[in-house]
Amino acid sequence: MTNKTNIGNLKPASCNRCTVRARTLFGTVDENKIPATQTYRNEYCHFSAGEIIHQEQHSIDYAFTLHTGCLILYNDLSSGERQILRVVLPGDFVGFSRNNKGELLYSIKAESDSHACLFFDENVTKMVGENSEVAKRLIELQAHETSLCQQRLLNLGHKTAAESLAYLIMELYARMRVQSPKDFNFITGEAFFPLSQADMGDALGLTKVHVNRVIARFKNQGLIVYGHKKMRVIDEKSLSAIAQFDVNLIEDPFRQFETFA
To answer: Which of 129, 167, 248, 252 is deepest in the core (most CB within 10 A)?
Structure first.
């Protein structure tokens, strides 16, 4: 659980004015019901860049929706290396899926200063039980994340280093554009890119040297411009083709559920 210093004296974000609500638990809730559903939120909290929010295999009694910023979910390996599992962006719901001991099987770290809407377990149970549209959206969010995880697993096991890195770049670049538009310059195409080359290696099981080589190749081919925490994809069509990446997974994540509505 985050320290009390991180949750005190913060003005709660209003769900009615939330820029990421369309992709959250409350995304399908009618406008006139939002003031009521907002009461299920326990706290609006702040995470500082570099903060370890939760350590793997420890129990947790809350979940949260990221409102601003960027987090990573990861495991520390017995070799001393790290495996990054997921990059969390605004609108993502974190902490719900646990083992039978109530433990999260991953650690959570803030890559940038971040804010989150926190829900304790008792309120999550109550919220889902009293609101069928929220329960349905929770299932959709979990199913969508499972779909993305399957694609990431394929990315790790059956692609070349260039294909894997192209996929990681395109997925995160597309997600930044949709989920964190304030960090995306729609005129120049430059976006905040939270992962360093070492981080990308930790996500893909590659060395930093190998990542550096592929990044240099993409730059020389005129596909990207990349610097510290900044990325601009110059040729999205070509990079997506290398990655075998479907941008619709990001831009329209809930289309697969529309036929069942």
So the answer is: 167
pTM: 0.86
Q: What is the CA radius of gyration of the chain?
A: 19
Order of strands, edge to edge, in the sheet holding 71-76? 52-54, 107-110, 71-76, 82-88
Distances (CA, A) of 91 to 124, 160, 164, 251: 16, 31, 25, 13
Q: How far apart are CA 224 and CA 231, in angstroms?
A: 7
Ramachandran class of 185: left when φ > 0, alpha when ψ lies in -120 to 50, beta otherwise: beta
Q: What is the pLDDT of residues 226-254, one digit of tens each?
A: 998 999 999 999 999 999 998 887 876 55
CB 153 within 8 A of CB 197: no
- Give 77's contacts (C-beta < 8 A, 6+ positions apart): 83
Mind listing the pLDDT tens digit for each residue in 160-215? Answer: 999 999 999 999 999 999 999 999 999 999 999 999 999 999 999 999 999 999 99
3-state helix, strand, coil split of the chain in percent (to 5) is 45, 20, 35
Among the listed residues 241, 18, 211, 248, the one whose alpha carbon sits nearest the alpha carbon of residue 115: 18
Q: Could you give the angle at the alpha carbon of 175 between the alpha carbons of 39 and 72, nearest 5°?
A: 70
